[in-house]
From TrEMBL:
It holds the Pfam family FA_desaturase. Keywords: Membrane, Oxidoreductase, Transmembrane, Transmembrane helix. InterPro entries: FA_desaturase_dom, Fatty_acid_desaturase. It is an enzyme of class 1 (oxidoreductase). It comes from the Bacteria. Residues 62-335 form the Fatty acid desaturase domain. CDD domains: Delta6-FADS-like (cd03506). The lineage of its organism: Bacteria, Pseudomonadati, Bacteroidota, Chitinophagia, Chitinophagales. This is Linoleoyl-CoA desaturase. The chain crosses the membrane at residues 38-57, 63-86, 160-181, 202-222, 228-247. It comes from Niastella koreensis (strain DSM 17620 / KACC 11465 / NBRC 106392 / GR20-10).
Length: 357
């Protein structure tokens, strides 16, 4: 991986934002980690997920009911990922490290691996957001062109249509394909995983085995392979679509910017925090229901600047950061509604699908 550095010598913007945010927490005597609102989410979502899983195993429902239950189960698992796993893996769920580590393992329960995800997301994506050649989140294979520096092929003309099909199978590919590729190659896109200790090796394999047992073996035993396969595919289609759309709306929209690196070292002209503001967008900030369901991930600018602060504080931080952006002449990228953000993503993917020649 080429070396990428940011021009942080005059990090006036981030210093000003940090000072304002620190003053907010001190003046209101608040902790930066989760509070009762976050813990209530976990107390609601996790039991609901377990209850839905057990209900699906009973088989006491019609086939339309089974479809709806599978969709609901997938959506519940995604909400657990947004609201519990995400904060925990960033260390913002609790002030206690062991609690964060334990709750972060909900990623493994969902079928993936917290250790690999932390490197991919916390380190690579949060540091080199929207930098083609490094950010694994915009390196989704030859069928999707997500920035102008990526190679164009004729099929991209239709990517704004078929991308939703690819999104729907993304968690299947992630859990059964890319996780194993990253593990065996010890590489996440162009970044080398320097060390995987014995404990992480054990956790990787035991999690995959337990996932197969609880999500494949047990359901087949109770409801048969046909019902299991139908429900399993619907579950993952739901998870894949929701996860992909929420994360795409944060970075792959018309208002965000992109950069690229090839083989040579690169210096980004702006300070890191300015780069994050330019490459990130919020959506539906005034919709409390969406904010609750997606774990504050509609406040992506706030999350990227302060990933170690729990998402329950993001609505308040957004007002601070927006004022700071105005003071420093920076555009604060946001879309007032979910519909507008989705439209912008589709529009950008359509633009990127055109022949650049």
């Amino acid at each position: 991986m080429p070396k990428i550095t940011f021009n942080n010598r005059n990090h006036l913007f981030f210093q000003s934002v940090k000072n304002s945010v620190e003053a907010y927490f001190q003046n209101n005597r608040l902790k930066k980690t989760g509070n009762w609102e976050l813990y209530l989410k976990a107390l609601v979502l996790i039991p609901v997920g377990i209850a839905t899983y057990i209900w699906l195993l009973t088989g006491n429902y019609s086939w339309p009911g089974g479809v709806l239950l599978s969709v609901f189960f997938g959506f519940t698992l995604v909400c657990i990922a947004f609201n519990v796993m995400h904060d925990a893996c960033h260390g913002s769920y609790s002030g206690k490290k062991w609690v964060n580590e334990f709750m972060g393992l909900s990623m493994n329960v969902l079928g993936s691996n917290a250790f690999i995800w932390k490197i991919k997301h916390n380190i690579i994506h949060h540091t080199y957001t929207n930098i083609d050649g490094v950010d694994d989140d915009i390196a989704n294979g030859p069928l999707l062109r997500q920035c102008i520096t990526q190679k164009w092929i004729p099929i991209h003309r239709y990517q704004f249509i078929y991308m939703f099909l690819l999104y729907s199978v993304s968690t299947l590919a992630w859990m059964w394909g890319t996780d194993f590729y990253k593990y065996f190659s010890k590489k996440i896109h162009t970044t080398v995983i320097k060390k995987i200790d014995t404990g992480q090796h054990f956790m990787f394999w035991i999690s995959k085995v337990l996932y197969i047992f609880f999500y494949v073996v047990v359901p087949i035993y109770f409801v048969g392979w046909q019902a299991w396969l139908t429900g399993f595919l619907i579950l993952h289609m739901t998870m894949g679509l929701v996860l992909s759309i929420v994360f795409q709306l944060a970075h792959v929209v018309e208002k965000t910017s992109f950069d690229a690196v090839a083989t040579d070292n690169k210096v980004i002209a702006s300070e890191w925090a300015v780069h994050e503001v330019k490459t990130t967008a919020d959506f539906a900030p005034g919709n409390k229901m969406i904010c609750w369901l997606v774990g504050g991930l509609n406040f992506q600018i706030e999350h990227h600047l302060f990933p170690h602060i729990s998402h329950v504080h993001y609505p308040a931080l957004s007002r601070i950061i927006r004022r700071q952006c105005e003071l420093f002449g920076l555009s604060y990228n946001y879309y007032p509604t979910l519909r507008q953000a989705i439209y912008s993503h589709i529009s950008l993917m359509k633009q990127l699908g055109r022949n650049p020649q």
